[in-house]
Amino acid sequence: MTFDFLRTRLRQGTRTSPYPRGAVELPERFRGLPVIQPADTPNGRPPLDVGACLFSPEEAGPGPAGTVSFSRDHRMASSTREGLVTSTGEVELAHALDAEMRRLFGRSLRLRSVVAGSCGGCEAELAALGNVVFDLARFGVQFVASPRHADGLVITGTVNRNMLDALRMTWEATPAPRIVIAVGACALAGGPFRGSPEIGLPSGIPVDLFVPGCPPHPLTILDGLLRLLGRLPGE
Ligand code: SF4
Fold first, then answer.
1. Which residue is closest in CA terms to ligand 1's atom 2?
2. For the chain, what is the mean pLDDT?
3. CA–CA gap between residue 116 and residue 226 (Å, rounded)
4. pTM for this structure?
């Protein structure tokens, strides 16, 4: 029995992604950061909001912002909402927290997930961060059950009006200083429900990291988190 286990383990090898030190293999159908082809009337084109993008095939092709296609680039989390609005396809990638916040959270960060009106897709990707491939815990980041034990919140979903008070109470129950991470097109811009009167955005809660996607790939979330914590080699 013991030898069976060891044999299986040897056959499987190391399953954990080499990211961020090595190259990342993404599935063929992965759709990353949108690329905008140079528009023939550059001054007349409205910019593209990557935060509101659903990364659907229907969004590719000619559109108001120019001709859009999806790259293989998983890096697109930003420290500001405006950093995700682009005319060129370039987004302003997240910058590291200040030195004091990095001293507090850089090696150990506990997060509370707040599902504020989500389809479950974003939470599935957050859960995947804990699997053997992405192994979020190797960076000292873990999810906890109570906001009182947390250093920050991860918000998913449209923040519908019914969840707004619960979200604010959870934020207030998280001890300061705290960080807030908004994950997915719903939390950033309402997602497929954008424009609905039931959406409570903007929630008034200060956000430190905006992660686009519907849902974001675990590597997009991980990349944003490591940028925020100043943990990316060479950054
Ligand atoms: S962003 Fe997409 S995957 Fe995430 S909760 Fe909204 S609809 Fe679901």
1. 214
2. 91
3. 24
4. 0.93
